[in-house]
Amino acid sequence: MPNRRTVISRSARVAAMLATLGFWPRALLARAGWNQAAFDAKSIDALMKVLGGAKPQPSADVTLDAPDLSENGALVPIALGARPPGVRRLLLLVEKNPNLLTAIFEPDDGVEPKIATRIKMAQSSKVWAIAMYADGRVLYASKDVGVTLGGCG
User: Fold this and answer.
1) Distance of CA 84 to the CA centre of its chain
2) Which of the listed residues 16, 57, 71, 114 has the most CB atoms within 10 Å of its CB?
């Protein structure tokens, strides 16, 4: 029976071979439901058209916690959430980044829709947290976040 070191070594070799042949990323992206058109959208209206949502409306049901000023644009802490029930998607957008859409989260019904992460920001910009509900509502919260040193480039 192989030991742990042998199993890890063989697994790494298989992963490297798959990546070299081009199978690994496509399989992961296909399984994750990658939506390239959404990440290529240049405006909120275009993004909502791709995702099949209505025009976002401001709401206190969506929360966005971000610093007023971040010293390093490569590591900006962000927390976003929405009041359940029925949250289908949480979107994180950074207006002046090379890609408007920074992240899409699709929480299950049994999970409280609150996310904390770190993002890269190219420059000071407005950050949006958008919640898409199962009943068709699209709500948002936004905040201006300043960056002293850009992290996207």
Assistant:
1) 19
2) 114
